[in-house]
Write a structure and sequence with these properties.
This protein is α/β, with parallel strands linked by helices. It has helices at residues 2-13, 69-92, 134-151, 172-183, 225-235, 252-258, 278-283, 292-298, 300-306; strands at 14-16, 50-60, 97-103, 111-113, 187-194, 203-206, 217-220. The protein has a domain at 43-241. The structure holds zinc ion.
Length: 307
């Protein structure tokens, strides 16, 4: 009963969408961590190290509420709290990491409406946020690309301010490229924030398995620091460790028993009570290998075959 509730809450809070299969074809062997999934060190947000910029764009969407100053301030507080927690985890694990949270501003405004993305405004269909279908991802991508293209007008390098429309930005990938340039770091985590705190729709991170050209980003519908940190970790390769069908070989019962407070497994606790398991540390690049016990938890179905 309790387990079911946790499962449902986790499921509601977060979906990570991916089109990638993690099945291995050959005989199972320990130490083949690289075959489990391809989220580690992929694309823009590679390993979670050194200098990272989290770039937050606040978008008013038709299906949710317009952002108020109070809502944005409290969400930025949550984002900062989430990033402080991640930095504290880095210190505990001997990693060098500095995260800067940047709030996007457009003509001194803190948010803009999705309808600004012209000539064809695209309204985000929030019902698609929990979908695993590729064509539904396409809808979210189209929306994100239009929003990115509009937001890029507010992101100019000082040297470009007089030049105007040189280097016209048309999608998320180009916006991130510009942000990487501007902030002089390779690690740019792009997050679109929607004001849907009370609606309980899932947040999602896209293209976390991608090796390009589509780059990873998050659509956040929530301001819970634990969920923000969870999605942020997805961008850097962390995998969901709560039961769902993307990873059928994971031993979820054992994961729960061994790591009850793992942030990729559960998010409705106070963030300071949560932790990172060796599995997540491996995927975000804080350890180079995964020991037999932890690998086994990701391959338990193969264990059954083996025995
Ligand atoms: Zn997740």
């Amino acid at each position: 009963m309790k387990l079911n509730n946790l499962f449902i809450v986790s499921l509601l809070l977060c979906f990570t969408l991916s089109a990638c299969s993690i099945f291995i074809n050959s005989e199972p062997k320990y130490g083949y961590q690289e075959r489990i999934a391809t989220t580690k060190n992929q694309n823009v947000c590679g390993l979670l190290k050194d200098s990272v910029v989290v770039y937050a764009i606040f978008v008013d969407v038709n299906q949710y509420h317009p952002w108020t100053v109070y809502d944005i301030e409290s969400t930025m507080d949550s984002l900062n709290k989430a990033m402080s927690w991640v930095e504290a985890q880095a210190v505990i694990n001997g990693q060098s990491l500095g995260i800067t949270s940047v709030m996007h501003k457009q003509q001194s405004k803190w948010s803009f409406h999705e309808g600004k993305a012209k000539p064809k405004p695209l309204s985000l269909n929030l019902n698609l946020l929990s979908s695993r279908k590729r064509k539904h991802h396409g809808h979210v991508d189209s929306w994100a690309n239009k929003i990115a293209a509009y937001a890029a007008r507010g992101v100019k390098k000082p040297s470009e301010s007089k030049v105007g429309t040189k280097n016209k930005i048309v999608n998320v990938e180009r916006l991130i490229a510009r942000l990487r340039d501007l902030y002089e770091t390779d690690n740019v985590a792009l997050m679109f924030f929607l004001n849907g705190y009370y609606e309980n729709n899932p947040s999602m991170s896209l293209h976390t398995y991608s090796s390009g050209p589509e780059v990873e980003y998050t659509v956040m519908t929530n301001k819970n620091p634990a969920i923000i940190a969870h999605e942020f970790l997805h961008l850097f390769g962390a995998l969901d460790l709560y039961p769902h069908d993307v990873h059928p070989t994971f031993n979820y019962a054992e994961l729960e028993e061994t790591y009850p407070d793992e942030i990729m497994r559960i998010q409705h606790k106070e963030i300071n009570r949560l932790m990172l398991s060796p599995i997540t540390k491996y995927y975000i690049g804080w350890q180079t290998s995964l020991d037999k016990e932890n690998t086994r938890m990701l391959y338990h179905l193969y264990d059954v075959i083996e025995y």
